[in-house]
Amino acid sequence: MLTPEADGMPPRDPSGRIPVARPSLPRAETLVPYLRRIDETRIYSNHGPLVDLFEARIAERLGLGKHAVLSCNSGTMALVAAIRAERNLSGHRGRLCLLPAYTFVATAGAAQSCGYDCHLLDIAPDTWAVEPAALRHHPRLSEVGLVLPVAPYGRMIDLQGWQEFHDKTGIPVVIDAAACLDRLMHPGTVLPRSIPLAVSLHATKSFGCGEGGLVLSRDTGLLREAYKVLNNGFLGSREAQTAGLNGKMSEYAAAVALAELDGFARKSAQWTKVAVAYADAGRETEVTLWTAPQISGCYALVEAANAGHAAAMKARLVAAGIDFRNWYGGGLSAHPAYARLSHDPLPVSADVAARIIGLPCFTDLAKADIGRIVACLSPPLAAQMQASRS
Ligand SMILES: *Cc1c(COP(=O)(O)O)cnc(C)c1O
After folding, report:
1. Which region is the signal sequence (predicted)?
2. What is the C-alpha separation between 265 and 13, in angstroms, rounded?
3. Confidence (pTM)
4. Do 248 and 341 sit in the same domain of this protein?
């Protein structure tokens, strides 16, 4: 086994501070063969051979047809492309977008940039997601032109339920599956018949290329439309067939993505090792930990019993020099940019946002460090006693 330094990783922080994320993407030498191909072809952009190869290889890896995968330059752009393609093809003119309050800000940003007014929904306590059946009788359903369900932290949601919702209501649905790629690589997940998924290849996700994204759909007509949206409206000619923008993945990003795919069996094993170490350490405590495969490998979450318990755990993490992150903040309505959005009552989102803490999670996080982290996560009772003493 190489030491982190010999493996080319930056040396560990000598103060012993543990960062929340420390992404690790393919090293330069693994990129060189792909970069040489770019030198030879002198194709740098516009769905070149490396982008083509990456899409084909990912499709194969996911057990999908080649035309079920479309690359783009971020997960946010994948959402935008899928939203616009759905709208173009459905002809639906509803201006309201329903989305969960508990998500990363990009979900709302993507909908707003496509011209929708957003209305925030509460999540279900046991899935942290919006359930399709709960929406069928929403009082504002007649205004709704788009629903954006989110798979939080890559936790799988009811994909077929959303397909049925779409089939019964005719309302366009786009799934924010930004953190789901590792989960989708496991056999057994069946993509919905037509509704698209948007995936992120951001460096902090389990499979990354720096900045990048994918639109996945078994509906090839929908992906053709998304292709146009991301290609200034062009498809096969220089005439814009739809209002588009440039969201394409470059050949350089595809080089990184291909190298990431080459090494992903190893990286995936590293994610698993970290998840198992967390789960093992967690079993010896009374705290609830969430790790892969329930969520994406790039996250390790602790679920506190209540807000007071969460505060006590955070204080101990801070004192121990361990970084943590509330990846979704306090939910969308807690961000100034989205504080004025209309919303349903959001008690569950607020409660979950206050109780879920993102712990350090990266491929070379040492088992000893995981032990140190979990040791800071006092059980609820101890936290209460500590609070009543001070
Ligand atoms: C990462 C993420 C995004 C955004 O993806 P980018 O590639 O950073 O644009 C959107 N939604 C969720 C839930 C995410 O986790």
Report:
1. none
2. 28
3. 0.94
4. no
